[in-house]
Amino acid sequence: MLYPTQTHSLQELQQQAAVASKVYVQRDYNSGKICKFQTKFPSELESRVDKQQFEETMQTLNNLYAEAEKIGGKSYLEGCLACMTAYTIFLCMETHYEKVLKKIARFVKEQNEKIYAPLGLLLTDPIERGLRVVEITIFEDRSIGSGR
Amino acid sequence: MNNCEYQQIEPLSLPTPRPAAVEEEEEKARRKWEVFPGKNRFYCDGRFILAQQSGVLPLTLGLILVTTVLFFVFDCPFLVKHLTVFIPAIGGVLFVFAVISLLQTSFTDPGILPRATPDEAAYIEKQIDNSGSSTYRHPPRTKEVVINQQVVKLKYCFTCKMFRPPRTSHCSLCDNCVERFDHHCPWVGNCVGKRNYRFFYTFIVSLSFLTAFIFGCVATHLALNTQTINVVFDFSSCTAVELVICFLSVWSILGLSGFHTYLVASNLTTNEDIKGSWSGKSEAEDTGNPYSYNNILTNCCSVLCGPMPPSLIDRRGFVPVEQSSQTVSMEMVLPMPAAKEIKVVVGPTPSQLPPSRALQVPSSPLPATPLSLTGRPQFSCLF
């Protein structure tokens, strides 16, 4: 009752499990200053999650951030409009970046609920860590043999 | 083993966490700006941020206000009569632009990077140690990345306990790492970085236009008014004051605008320009600026009209209660004091943080990420 059964819901994890360790996926600066995380599969997760699945999650995350930071016609328009109104437009309008960040938050929550929580993992939205790292919390799980 | 112990304790410990939890609930209503480790001041419950030393911001505001007010009171009536009614209109628009962009530069988060959590710092330290550094205290704390076929060294920040992203620098006055750090401007009372550079640029450009405009108008006024020389000395003393202020400031402000226009066009920061990071110290290598798009227009657009990044420090979010009432119920009873301990960890500067604490934290129960996810005001921080 105290420890989660084989498949956990996100809520069960949050309320009941103990943290075994945390893994941090760092930023990949090789493409410049755009927000991109390394897609290399951390060794600590080998026993927990499928490599393909993880890399897919990271790639989607990277694509979403690329969309947020995309410099194109729409962002220029937003920028010029903002400049002309002495940037007061930011007080009433949600920027494109913020909209995409909300999308990312929803995506991370969905991935946690569907894929990672049942495996005893929890992804932290990178914005909570200043867009520096993707923090992955590995929960101690007695029901799945040895945790690592 | 732990399970059994826990099951025994649970019914007994249930009453005790509740009052403590209630306390924590009340304590919990602390916003992150209240425990912010950097040297910044916050106003309006975390909506506005300013450096600790506001420098000469009041002086800047005062000078602009006084000069413009004197202009409107003493020069505009004359010039409207003799020239055109557009003069106060243009002056007004420039003044509004200058003041708004000044206030935005001063009160906007320049792109402060939140410090690494203790877990993160411990993880990075472990990785550095694993890579075979010689000593613990002074290992070669740099990491190299290749950006745009150029090798860039990322330095490790000992205060913020993380590898600084490219173009990030630690401001000693504000004690924060700031992204795309340009400089710390005392006139504005804040650092100038990624998020407020466009406001700063708008400010100095509109201010240089305003100063030049007032200077021109005042000079015209004096020129047109020379027939009544006696009267000149009476009411034009204010005009003379304006003239002096504008004359002295127009050169420096125009010069600064010109300099920053050059920086914007070549996608450089003041910090990089002064250090000569990309000025080709060694002629052998091709050390150009890896961040430049090699096109003036693209550079200008990306710096001034690019997407506005969000504030990363989440000033108005609530401090996550890591050891909240929920988690107390499943860990041993001892977290009660530990909870308070760990909460404090968020506050003090890392220099005060003994290494042992950083190691303790990983054993703590789950991070309040779910709580903070719901508690975080979704990107409503516009500054």
Secondary structure layout:
The complex is a heterodimer of chains A (148) and B (383).
Chain A: H1 10-16, E1 19-26, H2 51-68, H3 73-84, H4 96-116, E2 121-123, E3 133-139
Antiparallel strand pairs in A: 1-3, 2-3
Helix pairs in contact in A: 2-4
Chain B: H1 2-13, H2 17-28, E1 40-43, E2 48-51, H3 57-82, H4 86-107, E3 112-113, H5 118-130, E4 142-147, E5 150-157, E6 162-163, E7 169-171, E8 176-178, E9 183-185, E10 190-192, H6 197-224, H7 229-265, H8 270-275, H9 296-304, H10 325-328, H11 335-346, H12 355-360, H13 369-375
Antiparallel strand pairs in B: 1-2, 3-8, 4-5, 5-6, 7-8, 9-10
Helix pairs in contact in B: 3-4, 3-6, 3-7, 4-6, 6-7
Following the backbone from N to C, one meets helices and strands of chain B in this order, namely HHEEHHEHEEEEEEEHHHHHHHH
SSE topology string of chain A? HEHHHEE
State the helicity of chain B in percent bands: 40-55%
Distance between the termini of chain A: 22 Å
Q: Biggest interface and which pair forms it?
A: A-B, 59 and 62 residues
- Rounded to the nearest angstrom, the radius of gyration of chain B is 27 Å
**Biggest beta sheet summary of chain A:** 3 strands, antiparallel
Shape of chain B: elongated
Low-confidence stretches of chain A: 1-6, 144-148
Helix percent of chain A reads: 25-40%
Mean pLDDT of chain A: 80
What does this structure look like?
The complex is a heterodimer of chains A (148) and B (383). Chain A contains four helices and three strands. Chain A is of the alpha+beta class and 148 residues long. Chain A has a three-stranded antiparallel β-sheet with strand order 1-3-2. The two termini of chain A are 22 Å apart. Chain B is mainly alpha-helical and 383 residues long. Among the domains of chain B are: 37-113 and 183-314, no CATH class; 114-164, no CATH class. Helix content of chain B is 51%, strand content 10%. Chain B has 13 helices and ten strands. Chain B has helices at residues 2-13, 17-28, 57-82, 86-107, 118-130, 197-224, 229-265, 270-275, 296-304, 325-328, 335-346, 355-360, 369-375; strands at residues 40-43, 48-51, 112-113, 142-147, 150-157, 162-163, 169-171, 176-178, 183-185, 190-192. In chain B, the strands form four sheets. Chain B has a three-stranded antiparallel β-sheet, with no helix packed on it. Classes of the chains: A alpha+beta (148), B mainly alpha (383). At the A-B interface, helix 1, strand 1, helix 3, helix 4 and strand 3 of A face helix 1, helix 4, helix 5, strand 4 and strand 6 of B.
